[in-house]
Amino acid sequence: MNTFNWKRIVIKVGSALIAPKNQGCSSHFLLGIAQFIVKCRAKGIEIVLVSSGSVAAGRHLFSGDTENIAIKKAMAAAGQTEMMATWDRLFDFPSAQILLTHGDLRDRERYVSIRETIFSLLENGIIPIINENDTVTTDNLRVGDNDNLAAMVAGAADADSLIICSDIDGLYDKNPHTHDDAKLLSWVSVIDEDIYKMAGGTTSATGTGGMRTKIEAAEKAVSHGIDTFIVNGFTELTFNMLLEGKNPGTHFQPHETPMKEHEHWMKHTSKEQGVVVVGDDVDITSLDGDEALTSDEIIEIKGSFSVGDTVLVRKGDGTRLAKARSNYSSCLLTFIAEQTDQDFANEFQRQTGPIISDKNIALLEKQ
Questions:
Q1: Is 144 annotated as a binding residue?
Q2: Is residue 3 a known part of a binding site?
Q3: Does 158 count as an annotated binding residue?
Q4: What angle do CA 253, 10, 211 make, to 5 degrees?
Q5: What pTM was estimated for this model as a whole?
């Protein structure tokens, strides 16, 4: 047991496992997962559970147009209590519900609060059960799928491992449902475009995520140094193998030098509220003390953002350079960038502080 030397695991369970027939919750596929969680806790491994299923669990309570957005929110509200009750019945220890939106995660103060809540629950032997708050979320505030939500939670929780439960054994080199010669990739050391090309759409009529969202989640997690697995959540063999320290699916190798927590949040969780376009000769990687960008290097400001918001820094040709926290609003930044008297602009910045600090920037590797 614990050959992987994990101390904290985030497990993502999808709607197809919770409510496989859209007729309320079923414990049929959850027993093996629950037993795995119990055995992990007995060995001192902390567990955070990211569980989809509220909409699927509540669907059978409604008639008519169940694709209506307002009805879906109502289904989530009704199904969430049933989903939590189902998990609670499977455990002999307390659980806690945390409902999140992307708005909660991308706000740094609220993100830190979420971290503190998760840590406090774990310290007191309570398993956090996390889901997107579908009842109140809007398009602007949605994560959209619980695969990526689980990766964000894994980063926030300082997890050692992320286990994403799927309806197939892992990532195949081609769609196993349509190709008999499809081969399972047991190990992925680098997530690149070739890996993404292997990911098709969702194979489940119940869930909202597909293999691509799982790859996206894996990319987020491994950059934070988190062991990541895509496994078949429908079979107990999966969890027996994990308990034995064996890989039952696809194992994504974590980066040897993980991103720092704040930098990881900036790159993978925070959402840019605007764009700062800089000249082609600007080298954003050459930071000088607190000053990472000056007004004379800015060509254009796009979007509306406030002080403290995350912005995307890119070149005029679209090359993405970095995500960073802006110390200026878009209105003020536009004002100083448009000054023809550069001495005035430089003096203004000297008195008010840097546009972007090297302490609040995450360089984007994919440019």
A1: no
A2: no
A3: no
A4: 60
A5: 0.84
210 is in an annotated binding site: yes
Please report the domains of the chain, with CATH numbers, ordered by start residue. Answer: 8-264 (3.40.1160.10), 272-363 (2.30.130.10)
Q: Would the annotation count 166 as a binding residue?
A: yes
Using alpha carbons only, give the angle 308, 312, 315 rounded to the nearest 5 degrees: 140
Q: Tell me the residue type at 322.
A: A
Any binding-site annotation on 137?
A: no
**2 φψ region: left (φ > 0), alpha (ψ -120 to 50), beta (else):** left
Is the Cβ–Cβ distance between 298 and 346 less than 8 Å? no
Question: What pLDDT is attached to residue 297?
Answer: 83
Distance separating alpha carbons of residues 85 and 130, to the nearest angstrom: 14
Place of tokens 């939500």: 149
pLDDT in tens, 226-273: 999 999 999 999 999 999 999 999 999 999 888 888 888 888 888 899
Q: Binding site annotation covers 280?
A: no
- The reply to whether 211 sits in an annotated binding site is yes
Question: Is 212 annotated as ligand-binding?
Answer: yes
